[in-house]
Write a structure and sequence with these properties.
Two copies of one chain form a homodimer. In chain A, 38% of the residues lie in helices and 16% in strands. By secondary structure, chain A is an alpha/beta fold. The first copy, chain A, folds into two domains: 71-345, Spore Coat Polysaccharide Biosynthesis Protein SpsA, Chain A; 389-685, Spore Coat Polysaccharide Biosynthesis Protein SpsA, Chain A. Chain A has a nine-stranded mixed sheet with strand order 11-14-13-12-15-21-17-22-20. At the A-B interface, helix 1, helix 2, helix 13, helix 17 and helix 24 of A face helix 1, helix 2, helix 13, helix 17 and helix 24 of B. Chains A, B: Its cofactor is Mn(2+).
């Protein structure tokens, strides 16, 4: 019996073993996420860190990072200030990301203008951006009384499932005031932890707000315990749509608003009320994914243990000025990306093939065709450079539509910032200024404006940041950016070192009207240019005073000593006596400062660095048959300054003149192609020997 | 029977289960490292990524990251250029690190001076630095003929086991030309993969160099296959010492040098020869830990697959100018840290308690005692700020010792860079200049010097970078940095906007000798100061010419219009006629430019921003009984410039004058404390009503 019995016993044991192993693996399967499926987790430490300390031989893996999977991110953004925040957030995401990204931006018109241009010129590979009109969403949330500083825009996160494309199943939703300190794919990977019923991933609120005991009669919206913070959300859009999310939140909100006067924390109150009612919808996320730096934050409980913070949330209305024992640490992380050179993020993703951003291929091809041995290589390269452009960097009131209004257009870099206050005092009208800055300088500029009472008070000055790249100053690209952003029918094309006569703004508007500029007369109004070589200088309050200073040798006509042909055609002798506008003829090298309709020809962007950049524009105006009319009461005075770094760097370069000559030649060739025989005169004028003007 | 049989069967089953589970766990234990213990791995992908794709429920974990473990890093570094590289490397390490670090730096004297000051002023928490004298190690490697550009210093990695502290068991060794893109603890964690016999972890060489077929008669040193690259090394120092590493490599090197004329790749040739002989010593590391961007790199095989690069190695002699299809990508990563604001890395490590860096606690305490509501809070804060200082930013020849030599000392920020060339033309002697810059500006400065023939040619100008922090210009801290770095017995304490007379350097040395300055006479030699308000200006070549310009109104005595008392005591009328040096008396607000022995009193660092910073220094000289001797042939001329941003920002501030007054008062209190009744005269002088000087 034994011989037969043994196999039987062994068979039974084998069966038992099999069953046990199956059971073990199933148990192991549940261990994978460290908790029974569907149960909530609210861990201080992300699973990877626990993995490191886990001494068992079979560790729970961290959720797989999706290699090359397209990740979707939705952000609501309105106005210039939020747009700046969004850029910093996006920089932090791009810095760590290894996946292609698709940003879904719900924006007002202002933010859309800013961000569309920004992303278009940023040209980051493997980044797509879609815009959704916040205006259209307003009716869906405007019925909710709301006291939060984010206004209606905060509430728009509620309507994302209906707003985003119907085939979009998952999205990460972010507030503009968060900063990433890790790869966003790790956050995306947490979708894998959702049970079948869970639709929304959130981090617990790190304050006692929802406990309702902050002050007497503090009545927050209902929430599970401390509630959840909605600065970082994982949304299963597919399941939300299926579950009838829209009715769900509207029903809850309507009911709560019967007893509560308004939302205090916008969408967050409503999300929490819904979750309180349907706790199974939520997948709690590890606290490191939304470290909240509000005024009375409890975040230290989270970050004091974690070695690895993933996302910082500046959710105090004080933002970076919030008081908090460790705020310097977090501020440093934020400043890292605030000042980070966004151009460095234009790097491709290895191992994730993706189409190049629009326009990039063309630029790449043109760059590849350049000859590095060409003496003018730097010029060619600079001409082809696509600069990242952030228009309306600061809040700005568009000027009210007026038929004869005129915007002062100019460009500058950091070394001319101190001109802005004086310029504001001389020109009360609208200005459109392009600033050539690094990302860090843009922040210095911001602080400079904030610290200046004169500048802060002005609503009609629009600042457009063009980010530095390459060794040569792209003067005409800058002028074109400022020109394109001017919103009045006329523009005064000036330079930053000139202070206009105090009366110029009024006088120009009157002249435009009298001369019927643009409508009946195709003309450029010339503002005669003067200069002082002295720092301490009392600005003339009238033409008579100016003439007296000229006679006493305190003022000169502009560049009288070094480049008289630049302004000689203005005919200063005639101007002295003139009572009415007079017409002058174009001549070689003429480069007056002019007032023209906004739709005037653009500047030729091939002129980078210094030299001939305005001359070419005046040639273009003349070729297009603009009359040149000198205004008898107009003037602007150039203030002295040390030569800029760019000028000194390149004036000394021996190849510089040769390259400028090459650019001029090409400009004339293109001119002939455009205007045919009519353009001959410019070439002839150039070749004529000049008298001792 | 059944009732009794069941319990027994269950008992047997339970025992079986127990045995099975134990077996399972043990099996799991071996799986932990993904391969049998002791076997080598040479993976393109780090194990974490493979883990991500593993779909089984129990995945091999990545090696545990050692939370709060102190990690040791050794780097050999010589000279100013390598020191700059090292800083960039360290910034990249610090950016991602979460562990305390101990850097072991093998340096020459120059690098030690630079780096000791840098780390001391950087004050990064949880970073220790030890220095080892490269000079002492030279005899141990100088017998090896070597053709590599790193010279003797490259070979010093071989002697680290004997050089580093005997109780140090493990160290990561890095070349200065690597950049981290990940947490160095992940690299440290790879020590856990070493078998009992392995002593050194290396990445395979990513070129065909060691295959020996690059050109005819190319005879590389012996290596296993492609060999290994020594830009990134994990060293088990304990085992190396035990295994007799010193004899081992010396034996191998000596033997190979019988047939090979010299090492071509320094230490790397010898490491490879030893490994070829003892292949069991090496633990190959994943290629992402040393992505080599040499000229004919095969690195693409590594990075084209990996989504995650860990360390970039610029191991071409061309460094960033290396040609490579994807070099822009890598360059961006490098530039990220090159331009990164190192101040932002002064953040503490949460969850890893570590002693504050030396001096930091004191500063923190003082800062904590400040009253944020105090109107002068910004001044107080700025005074307490410890600026990161990088002395000798560019290569510099110390001046040969000469008993009467004099160094021009000055400080500047970016907006005065264009003064440097003119200054070099006027002053052929040594200069010590402190530059107040951001990290990004320091790189612009570097390019500016490289692009200038005049500046590149000068070996006796030392540039010291003081990194910007805070809103006020720390003018006296900058002066003190420049002063402390002057290497001649005398210094000319000037300002960057002044051009000295062409003859001044020679004349000062002669005067110092004649007047026996310092040795027999405790005096400050006054260099009379003038100014021009014009840009275009022909510099006088003699005192006679200068006087003519003064008479014609082209020149003025310095600040004649706004602050005559600053220089009136120089007595310009007397100077006009003087043939020999003459003594003048101190008077209130006197601030001449002077020549003094190098050991003169330092500037008072409490004066930040603008105003009274030089005045206080002259008071200090007078209190210490320096004679003030005006030199009859000396002069310097101030060139005009636009007011700096800092000046315009604070001149307009209403609290500025009040705070300056408070600083003055405190200065006088300290003066009384130091000099007793003798200091009364300064207070009295200040309180006297002044005539219309």
């Amino acid at each position: 019996m034994l011989p037969r019995g043994r196999p039987r016993a062994l068979g039974a044991a084998a069966l038992l073993l099999l069953l046990l192993l199956i059971g073990f693996f199933q148990f192991g399967g549940d261990v994978e996420y460290g908790r029974p499926r569907g149960a909530a987790a609210l861990d201080g430490e992300p699973s990877a860190d626990r993995g490191g300390h886990n001494r068992s031989d079979c560790v729970p893996p961290r959720p797989p990072l999706p290699k090359c999977e397209l990740l979707h991110v939705a952000i609501v953004c309105a106005g210039p200030n939020s747009s700046r925040d969004l850029v910093t957030l996006v920089k932090s995401v791009l810095f760590y990301r290894k996946n292609p990204l698709h940003f879904h931006l719900v924006t007002d018109t202002m933010a859309r203008n800013i961000l569309e241009m920004l992303f278009h010129t940023w040209m980051v590979p493997a980044v797509r951006v879609s815009f959704y009109d916040a205006e259209e969403l307003k009716p869906q949330v405007s019925w909710i009384p709301n006291k939060h500083y984010s206004g209606l825009y905060g509430l728009m996160k509620l309507v994302l499932p209906a707003t985003l494309p119907p085939d979009l199943a998952r999205v990460i939703v972010l507030d503009t005031d968060v900063t990433f300190a890790s790869d966003i794919a790790e956050l995306w990977a947490l979708f894998a932890h959702f049970s079948d019923k869970q639709v929304i991933g959130l981090v617990e609120n790190q304050s006692d707000w929802y406990l309702g005991n902050l002050w007497r009669n503090h009545r927050p919206w209902p929430a599970l315990g401390r509630g959840f913070n909605t600065g970082v959300i994982l949304l299963r859009l597919d399941r939300l749509r299926q579950a009838g999310w829209e009715q769900m939140w509207k029903l809850t909100a309507t009911r709560e608003l019967l007893t509560l006067p308004a939302t205090s924390l916008a969408d967050q109150d409503i999300f929490n009320a819904v979750i309180k009612e349907h706790p199974r919808l939520v997948q709690p996320l590890p606290c490191v994914w939304n470290v909240q730096l509000s005024d009375h934050t409890l975040a230290e409980r989270c970050y004091s243990e974690a070695s690895d913070l993933k996302v910082i949330h500046w959710n105090s209305p004080k933002k970076l000025r919030v008081k908090n024992k460790h705020v310097d640490h977090f501020r440093n992380l934020y400043l890292t990306f605030l000042e980070y050179d966004g151009n460095l993020l234009r790097r491709e993703l290895f191992g994730c093939p993706s189409p190049p951003p629009p326009g990039a291929e063309q630029v790449q091809r043109a760059l590849a065709q350049l000859d590095e041995e060409d003496a003018c290589f730097e010029f060619r390269q600079q001409q082809l450079t696509v600069h990242r452009v952030h228009v309306t960097f600061l809040p700005h009131e568009p000027p009210p539509p007026q038929p004869h209004d005129v915007t002062l257009v100019a460009q500058l870099s950091m070394d001319r910032l101190q001109m802005l206050e004086a310029l504001c005092r001389h020109w009360p009208g609208p200005m459109s200024l392009a600033l050539y800055l690094t990302d860090a300088e843009a922040q210095q500029f911001l602080r400079f404006v904030e610290a200046s009472a004169v500048l802060s008070a002005r609503q009609n000055v629009a600042y457009h940041v063009v980010y530095r790249e390459g060794p040569l100053y792209p003067v005409n690209q800058l002028r074109n950016v400022a020109l394109a952003q001017a919103l009045t029918p006329y523009v005064f094309l000036s330079d930053i070192d000139f202070l206009p006569a105090y009366s110029l703004y009024d006088y120009l508007r009157a002249s435009i009207e009298q001369l019927k500029l643009g409508s009946e007369r195709k003309a450029a109004l010339v503002v005669p240019a003067f200069e002082t070589l002295r720092y301490r200088f009392s600005f003339p309050s009238s033409k008579a005073e100016l003439l007296a200073l000229l006679d006493s040798g305190s003022l000169y006509t502009f560049r009288y000593h070094e480049w008289p042909q630049g302004h000689a055609p203005t005919d200063y002798a005639r101007w002295r006596e003139a009572q009415t506008p007079y017409r002058v003829q174009w001549a070689a090298d003429y480069e007056p400062y002019v007032v023209v309709p906004r739709d005037c020809p653009r500047y030729d962007p091939r002129f980078v660095g210094f030299g001939w950049n305005k001359v070419a524009h005046i040639v273009e105006l003349d070729a297009q048959e603009y009359e040149l009319l000198v205004l008898p009461e107009a003037f602007a005075i150039h203030l002295p300054h040390a030569p800029s770094l760019d000028i000194s760097r390149f004036r000394s370069s021996p190849t510089y003149r040769d390259c400028l000559q090459a650019l001029k030649d090409e400009f004339h060739q293109d001119l002939s192609r455009h205007y045919g025989a009519a353009a001959l005169k410019y070439l002839t004028a150039l070749q004529q020997p000049r008298g001792p003007a």
